[in-house]
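Question: does this match?
>
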Amino acid sequence: MKIYENDKIKEKLFFKELASGLKIYFMPKEGYTKQYAIFSTNYGSIDNIFVPIGEKKAIEVPEGIAHFLEHKLFEEPEENIFDKFSKLGANVNAYTNFTQTAYLFSSTENFYENLELLVHFVQHPYFTDENVEKEKGIIAQEINMYRDNPNWRVFFNCLRAMYGEHPVKIDIAGTVESIQDISKELLYKCYNTFYNPNNMVLFIAGDLSFDEILRVIDKTERKDSKKIEEVNRVFKEEPKGVRENFIEESMMTSTPLFYIGFKDEDINLSGKERVKKDLMTNFILDMLFGSSSIFYNELYEEGIIDSSFGAYFTGKKSYGHSLIVGESKKPKEVYERVMNLFEKDPQSILNEDDFNRIKRKNIGGFLMSFNSVESIANNFIDLYFEEVLLIDYLEILESIEYKNLIERLKKHFVKENVVLSIINPLS
């Protein structure tokens, strides 16, 4: 067992790696009534080409299979998993995003019983031909619902225009057609590869005993998994630049929706270096387009944008993009104003006082997040698969300097890598 401490944030982090390769982290929160556990695998919707465990050749699986697998893990031959957690007084949930799948619960009582249930159901899949076929209809309805959602469509249209090959452009749930090719055998192949304990992490926060946590997991976890060092994932080479600069569609919406996307080509970074780049980019977007910025207030007063306007950067090791989004009756004018802003000298539009204020705001927000076990757990998981521990995040934040933002703006916000996606109202 190892204990990490950070005197600045006054928090401890307990760690133990089991013989299976499963990593367990625990942050004690004395006096807190709520407990939280999240069991996550380094497996998301972009992992469609990989070498299965025990095999030598890469295979390509249907789009949406990671999300499908998440749904199916809640299937049991007898009682419903949700009912079991409910009887123990816990709220259980799960999610799949582009790079990870997570199963989680929060409780105020019966924590160790709930933890045993979480570890057991995630490590004991139950797939049959019948329940796989039944799930296809359920997920097809979900896909159609999102496909008819203008906000979802304007987002994925932007990604499809931005990326030529990278699977981040593909809807996390796949398509109605792609999920028809999912079988029980493929689900087990994906499960056995990506749900290997060495590809997973379990994080817990609350007023609890780490010794008791370890005892429950030792009693519950599967002992028959073959440990693998690392999953061999394959990504097609992504071309430089964007696939197309403009994409437009009409749907049922009262006001045009827009996404302005800047594709990031400064990728393949890892650890603290990558997290710092993400933070710098979000600092820039907050300074230029946040609700206190000159740009936001000018366009808001002119009636060109409303409170839906915002901007953020998101990305992982193999992809990244900044998105400036909102509703506007004049989306092309918003785009022109954004592009005109980036043509100016970076030092004239990035105010150093604004930088210091936003840096302080981010540090304060990070410290405040330790008052919530949910925030602690979800922030931990997001950083963990970037090879950064939560207690080291403050050090990265504090290391950012004003000059870093100037360099980042020049490198990232270039017209060759920009996309405009618009959803117009039906005429």
